[in-house]
Amino acid sequence: MATEKALSEKTFSKNKQASMLKQAVEQILSAVGEDPNREGLSKTPARVAKMYEELCAGYKQTLDEVVNGAIFHETAAGIVLVKDIEFYSLCEHHMLPFYGLAHIAYFPDQKIIGLSKIPRIVEMYARRLQVQERLTTEVREAIDQMLQPKGTAIIVEAQHLCVMMRGVNKTQASMVTTSYSGIFQSDEKLRQEFHQLVYRQENN
To answer: What is the pLDDT of residue 14?
Structure first.
């Protein structure tokens, strides 16, 4: 009975959220001079509501749920790198997309994480309203929290539509952010090795 009640409340909350989003889109369409009831737009509010549910799914996830216990005790030593992780996020300033690649490394201290979990962690934080600087730090802090490694390093490269299609209209502009902890922060040679591993193919 308690489970049925929880599911019912969850469904009600989801339906209420969808209704609020649909109404908001209808108001935006009217505000820009459109008719939300015309044939081409009549289903747009519902489509946009469903889209935002997907693009902002990270608010409904927790780090523990995403990792799901996939942490293993191993005596591995050396850099563990997952590179070229695609991500898509929404800038919180204009709610326009920014997208790119994340490169993440950690130096294990008796624990490693399942390979698929690092992209899933990126996805969880990316599927929220974000700024790239915070996204970079949140992902690095999540790896530190789950693994307590000797160090973590992350590079995020992204292009922002709020820069490309409005404002300064710079279509080739991109942004790079980094975050380091532990021995990646204190050991310059290790940081250089991380950068070489990330960009090795491009330099060949």
So the answer is: 77
